[in-house]
Amino acid sequence: MVAVVKPVIQVRGMHSEDLAVVSAMEAASYDYPWSHGIFDDCLKAGHPCWVLCVDATIVGYGILSMGAGEAHLLNICIDPAFRGRRLGRHLLGRLLDIARWNGAERVFLEVRPSNPLAKVLYESVGFVEIGRRPRYYPARDGREEAIVMALELLPSA
Description:
Elements: E1 9-13, H1 19-29, H2 36-44, E2 49-54, E3 57-67, E4 70-78, H3 87-101, E5 106-111, H4 116-124, E6 128-139, E7 142-152
Parallel strand pairs: 4-5
Antiparallel strand pairs: 1-2, 2-3, 3-4, 5-7, 6-7
């Protein structure tokens, strides 16, 4: 009988040493990626910045902004080679836990209409559309609006 070894999945704090990997993943995932400097600024500002590792390899990341009982999901990404394995759902769940542990009562985010898989993921955990931001994102044909979504957090069980 062959033993099946489950991968070790871990969410840990992002470090400056992770930024090259995170920036490369961002560039591979988006037409208009964040720069290395933006990630560095988020770390320096003290935003909750996290990486998702599978067997000690970084395969995703997420960044929150916290304040006044609210959290804002600034960025979340899974390496294209690791998508479709529910890792985005896992990372999102941990980020929501982190927001809750830091006193957030609600979480906000923006998502592109051209990213329906992300929108479906957010809706599946309870995010609802609360508005639109016209011309928010850069796009090939000019600018793309953002769908603004919110989630009311329940206290931890």
